[in-house]
Amino acid sequence: MDNYIISTKNLTKKYGNKVVVDNLNLNISNGEIYGLLGPNGAGKSTIILMLLGLTEPTSGELSVLDFIPTKDPLKIKRHTGYLPEKVGFYEDMTSAQNLEYTALLNGIPEKEIPQKIDECLDLVGLKKEKNRIVKQFSKGMKQRLGIADVLIKDPKLVIFDEPTEGLDVEVANQILATILDLNKERNMTFLISSHQLNLVQKICHKVGIMSNGKLIGEGNISELSKNIFGGHKYQIEVEIIGDAEKLIEKIKSVKGIKSVTSTGNTIHIGTDTDLRQDVSKVITNTEGIILTKMDIKDFSLEDVYLNYFKEV
Amino acid sequence: MKSVLTIYRKELADYFGSKKFLILLGLVYLTGLTSIYVSIQNIRAAAQSSTDAFVFLKLFTTSGDVLPSFLYFLSFFIPIMGIVFGFDAINSERNSKNLSRLLSQPIYRDSIINGKFLAGITTMAIIISSIIMIIAGIGLRVIGVPPNSEEILRILIFIFICVCYGTFWMALSMLFSVVMDKTATSILTAIAIWIFFFFFIQIIASAIANAVAPVSSSATLATQIKNFSVDIGIKRISPAYLFTESITVLLVPSGSQLFLRAVTTADISKMILSPLSLGQSLVQVWPQIVVIIALAIICFAISYIVFIKQEIRST
């Protein structure tokens, strides 16, 4: 477990008879941005709570920053920043007072606190709002203040639970840019739990897909698509009127086609090159088939994700 | 320990800056000053006609024709104060989504509940001792009789009992703030319990005592004593009653011991009543004081254990 910031081995958490996390083996390297995907109830939040030592695993091994959360939760929390999905602040206190409280709880020397507060607020674009009470903040501002709150302790590991949930595109992009900058400049490791696939696709180096407490897929997006779609790069989607089954056999015979599947009148063709011309020829040469639409696209994380759940 | 201190300081600052603190302080000061006015009106006559060695203590116990004594006001306000400082201690943190952020800091979970509890006790101690000191100061100036050393000791023990009693109510309402999600539910439950112990227990005790040993004009002495014993036995379930007993014995050293047990008029006529010494007063009310402290500890211990074992969710 030595070379990883986070490492779990057969980690299991049960509430009564219900298995919430099931034999999880997860390894996150230093400097990595790791996206943890999965629907509600997949076990993502429970994993985070176990990483922070806020709940104990039922069985298995777990190490964060080379410490065991059940034995050394304070050492882990000293170097780990956590931004919950719904972050709360003391609304009658100013943003600076909220950050000061966090800094004091982290044992940061009082002399250093004002400078750290300025730095962190500057980083998230809230320096001008330093003396404004949090009650007057918008949701986006609170979320940015949450990031500042996480950064005040100079964490090695940052855990974000749905960091851009409910934010408008501009604010969400600002937050993503901040995450990328921190990862690049300070080599911070990020674990981002989210179900916003476009967000994860934009910034994560590696993705883990959770379902019913199990890690059903892991890797970067091309690795995942390789697993699920058989290793091809593009997907051609064809909508037709006519007998799809009859056409599928003919399309399979085209050189370079890796996979062909259908859902109703839509045929999904996996390839490594753009074979739209060859496919359209086959369709037009097939009697009784009318081509209504043809698209080509790279596999997105959404495709990968949906296909994983289709298979599960 | 440092994290407890940080939380304690923050909570203390919150309490002192909060509207609930200012309202409570205003109410306690207003009623305290009203009662001192009433007692000063009546105390001169009492002091002149009495040979009582504890004139200064009468500042706290003398009532007027309409207004009750400061003791009565205090026994009414201390539970309210305790409830107000404890009812939202934990569930407000949970509802404002602060709890999971707070728990992700390098602090032990019990630091939160310990810090809040200590800050609440400190705030109550400051309010209670300040109003008692103000009353003592005004009384000293107006009646011109300085307290003797025993009276000072009695006043200090009185402050201690008041703080313990307030701590019990705060620990109880804090327990509700741990087990109940909504602040409205926790405050209503605590108030309901206070109303029961303050008002209804007296009605229930009388009803049961009269059912068990009805006292009519022809009732025997044994029946009267049994009625009294059942009545007082039930009332002593109430912390409010234990508090009243303990502070009355402490602040009214002459003859207050009589109300702790069944005594007939015939017995009283044979007695030579003299004030109890401080030691004797404490012996009389020691069980009451211990029960109040024990109840506070039990309530806080349950809150502590439940809070430590509570599942923390991120949302």
What does it look like?
The complex is a heterodimer of chains A (312) and B (315). Chain A has 312 residues and is of the alpha/beta class. Chain A has two domains: 4-219, 3-Layer(aba) Sandwich (Rossmann fold); 230-311, 2-Layer Sandwich (Alpha-Beta Plaits), CATH 3.30.70.100. Helices cover 37% and strands 29% of the residues of chain A. The mean pLDDT of chain A is 85. In chain B, 76% of the residues lie in helices and 0% in strands. Chain B is globular and about 70 Å long. The model of chain B has no long low-confidence stretch (mean pLDDT 86). Classes of the chains: A alpha/beta (312), B mainly alpha (315).
- The mean pLDDT of chain B is 86
Largest interface: A-B, 32 and 25 residues
The number of distinct structural domains of chain A comes to 2
Specify the helix fraction band of chain A.
Answer: 25-40%
Structural class of chain B: mainly alpha
CATH topology of the largest domain in chain A: Rossmann fold
Termini Cα gap of chain A:
29 Å
- Low-confidence sequence ranges of chain A: none
Number of strands of chain B: 0
Summarize the structure.
The complex is a heterodimer of chains A (312) and B (315). Chain A is an alpha/beta fold and 312 residues long.
Which terms summarize this structure?
heterodimer, A: about 300 residues, alpha/beta, Rossmann fold, Alpha-Beta Plaits, 2 domains, six-stranded mixed β-sheet, four-stranded antiparallel β-sheet, 13 strands, about 30% strand, B: about 325 residues, mainly alpha, about 75% helix
Write the layout of secondary structure elements.
The complex is a heterodimer of chains A (about 300) and B (about 325).
Chain A: E1 4-15, E2 18-29, E3 33-37, H1 44-51, E4 59-64, H2 73-79, E5 80-83, H3 95-105, H4 113-123, H5 139-151, E6 157-161, H6 169-186, E7 189-194, H7 197-203, E8 206-211, E9 214-219, H8 221-229, E10 234-241, H9 244-252, E11 257-263, E12 266-271, H10 276-285, E13 290-298, H11 301-311
Parallel strand pairs in A: 3-7, 3-8, 5-6, 6-7
Antiparallel strand pairs in A: 1-2, 1-4, 8-9, 10-12, 10-13, 11-12
Helix pairs in contact in A: 3-4, 4-5, 8-11
Chain B: H1 2-17, H2 19-49, H3 58-61, H4 70-86, H5 91-95, H6 99-103, H7 109-143, H8 149-179, H9 183-212, H10 221-235, H11 239-251, H12 265-270, H13 278-309
Helix pairs in contact in B: 1-7, 2-4, 2-7, 4-7, 4-8, 4-9, 4-11, 7-8, 7-13, 8-9, 8-11, 8-13, 9-10, 11-13
